[in-house]
Write a structure and sequence with these properties.
With about 130 residues, the chain is of the alpha/beta class. It has a domain of about 90 residues: Rossmann fold (3-Layer(aba) Sandwich), CATH 3.40.50. A five-stranded parallel sheet has the order 3-2-1-4-5, with helices on both faces. Helix 1 crosses helix 2, helix 3 packs antiparallel against helix 4 and helix 5 packs across helix 6. The longest helix has 15 residues.
């Protein structure tokens, strides 16, 4: 794959755990250009890793991402587009909507295992 990929929190956690889904994700992102994640995914990853493995481990993983992955920020336009997605499907969380629109604004596909994304274009499910 030579297209750009935005990896979401679900996929990062699978990658970090080395699960079967994570191994599939690793194959998909191997040649991704660019390889990105959202600042919102950093937020989610930090608190989830800290809950399970502690503050030092959370900082370690985030430092790895910051050194290897392009971190994308939100814009007011992305916020408005994400709000429109939040209306349909209504069961998708706000962070997911904003992250998805961040990927779309950058012309990236989303790598995830989150089934809330299954019917959206530009998504690769692991």
């Amino acid at each position: 794959m030579n297209e750009g990929v935005l990896v979401d929190t679900y996929a990062w956690l699978e990658l970090f755990q080395g699960s079967d889904r994570g191994k599939k994700g690793r194959e998909i992102i191997r040649d991704a250009n660019p390889l990105c994640t959202s600042v919102l995914n950093i937020y989610e990853l930090f608190y989830r890793i800290e809950q399970i493995r502690g503050d030092n481990t959370a900082h370690h993983y985030i430092d790895i991402l910051k050194s290897r992955v392009k971190i994308l920020n939100l814009t007011p336009e992305i916020a408005c587009m994400g709000a429109q997605i939040k209306i349909d499907p209504p069961d998708m969380g706000a962070v997911g909507c904003l992250m998805y629109e961040t990927a779309r604004a950058q012309g990236l596909v989303v790598l995830t295992g989150d089934q809330h994304f299954r019917n959206l274009p530009g998504v690769i499910l692991i």
